[in-house]
Structure formats: C-alpha cells, structure tokens
Specification:
By secondary structure, this protein is mostly helical. The chain contains eleven helices and no strands. 80% of the residues lie in helices and 0% in strands. The longest helix is centred in the middle third of the chain and has 37 residues.
Length: 306
C-alpha cells in the first residue's frame, strides 16, 4: 500500500507540473504565431490532466485504505467521502481532481490559444500548490506555520515552472515538432532564451524556499542526524540531483543556446542539436528522479521530528 501511495504521489507531482508549467512556458517563451503552429500542446495538457485525475483518485483510495488498515476501504464510498471532506489530504486530493477535470473540459471546449493556456496555468498552479496543504509544509504549528506553508507553496510553484518548461522543450526538440525546420529552430532558440531569465528566478526561489523549509524540517538540532536517517539521506540525494540540474541548466543557457544562435546564423545546426537534446533529456531525467525522491520524502518523518 505504501508503494502504491508513493507511486500515486509521483504521478500527481509530474502531471500537475506539466499542466501548470508547460502552458505557462508557451505564454512567456513563445510568440503567438509559434504557439499556434504547434500541434502537441493540447494533447500534452490532456494527457497530463488525465494522469493527474487518475493519480488523485488512486492516491485518495490508497490513503483511505492505509488509514483504515484495510485494502477494501479503498472501494468504500462512505469512507472515501469522509476522508475527502474531513481530512487535509482528502481536500487536497479533491482540489487536484477538480483542477484536472476542469483542465480536461477546457481542452475539449476551447481552441488552443492564450485563453486556454492561461486557464490551464491557473488550474495547474492550484493543483501544484495543493501538495503543500497536506504535506510537511502544513505540519508546523505556531508562529512558523504560515511562513513555512508559504515557502512550501512557492517551492512547489518554482519546481513546476522548471519541470513544465523541460517537458515543453523536450517536445520542441523532437524532429518535425510542428513548424517547418527553419521556423522551428528559430522558435526553439527564442524559447531557450525566454526561459533563461525565468530560470534564474526559479533557481533563486528554489534555493531560498529550500533553506526556509530545511530550517523547519531539519533545523540546527537535526543536522547531526541527517546522515543517519532515511529522510536525511534522501534529502542529500535530492540536493545532489538538484546540483546536477543546475549544471545542465547552466550549460544550456551559457553554451548550447549561444551555439544554437551561431549555428542558425551559419545555417549549420547538425552539430548543435544532438548535444542540446542530450542535455535537456538528462536534465528532465534528473527532474523526474527528484520527483521520485520527493514522493518518498513526503511519507517519512523529517529530521527535526526524529
């Protein structure tokens, strides 16, 4: 049951990040004509919305069964309803499911464009933020409760911006991604350049809010127990993976993006794209690995509580 709950959390984290971050990326990193020529954004949003809906339902069922100590409780309508209404994580599951259902409906009702991408961004932000309502960020009591909750929400939002952008960039880097090749390469360069400034703000937010969360979840007293507890070891692994993502993001910004600009000017991109594809693919893989660790960390007692 624990494995099922963790798996459902990971699916929800990933799907909510895409529902939020990918449409937002389209709005700030691409010009209107470039967005309109892409065929994959709406199918991507629908797939992520469906995954979020299924993941939220599975997570609610798994959590209900775990609370009751009986797998059969996962199919008990009265028990599910009680958990949905009376517990913080039940309300969070409900919020994510409602956001996912609304995202799917809007994808069917609205034409691809600014209105759809803006609405999906808002719904995705709600889904991403809802993880803070029932996680460690909502567990602190007293004067520190609100600062930690705000820091956790901002941390999740920043992570969603980054991961959603990676999903969009990975699709843009596919051969025949929707635009004629010259236009596709120009749009790709513009998107990479557009993400650069946003990426700096994302990294700063992640670092600052991570420090705030660490103060509450680890604390000075917990530093000595970091290397001797499962939570601490997984937290260290997360930081190592995050450092790897930072290195790849820096390479994309300061090496691969200028190389792509130079290659476009020289009409020679054959040597540039493979390296960029590998870098984005590896950065995405590290992001998914971090999501997996976060899914497990959410089930463990933090170092400060041990």
């Amino acid at each position: 049951m624990d494995v099922a709950i963790i798996a459902a959390r990971i699916v929800q984290y990933a799907a909510a990040s895409v529902v939020f971050g990918a449409p937002l990326f389209l709005l700030y990193a691409l010009k209107g004509r470039d967005r309109a020529a892409l065929g994959w954004p709406r199918p991507l949003a629908m797939a992520a919305g469906l995954a979020l809906l299924v993941g939220a339902a599975a997570g609610l069922m798994g959590q209900t069964a775990a609370m009751a100590g009986d797998p059969a409780a996962a199919l008990d309508g009265a028990m599910l309803g009680s958990v949905m209404i009376e517990t913080p994580f039940g309300l969070a599951f409900t919020a994510r499911a409602a956001a996912a259902a609304a995202a799917l409906a809007l994808c069917l009702l609205l034409r691809p464009g600014t209105a759809l991408w803006g609405a999906l961004t808002a719904l995705g932000a709600l889904a991403v933020a809802s993880f803070a309502w029932s996680g460690h960020g909502a567990a602190t009591e007293g004067p520190g409760a609100l600062p930690q909750l705000i820091a956790d929400v901002l941390h999740l939002i920043a992570a969603g911006v980054w991961l959603g952008a990676l999903a969009a960039l990975a699709l843009m880097l596919r051969p025949r991604a929707g635009l004629p090749e010259p236009d596709a390469l120009r749009a790709l360069h513009d998107a990479l350049a557009g993400f650069s400034g946003v990426g700096s703000a994302v990294v700063a937010t992640l670092v600052l809010t991570g420090l705030v969360n660490s103060w509450f979840l680890v604390g000075l007293d917990g530093l000595g127990r970091v290397t001797s507890s499962p939570y601490g070891l997984l937290l260290i692994a997360k930081l190592v993976l995050f450092a790897g993502m930072l290195g790849l993001a820096a390479a994309n910004r300061f090496r691969h993006t200028p190389e792509l600009a130079a290659a476009l000017a020289a009409d020679d991109v054959d040597r540039t794209l493979p390296a960029l594809r590998r870098s984005v693919a590896l950065e995405t893989a590290l992001g998914l690995a971090i999501l997996a660790l976060v899914g497990v960390l959410g089930t463990l007692a933090p170092a400060a509580a041990q």
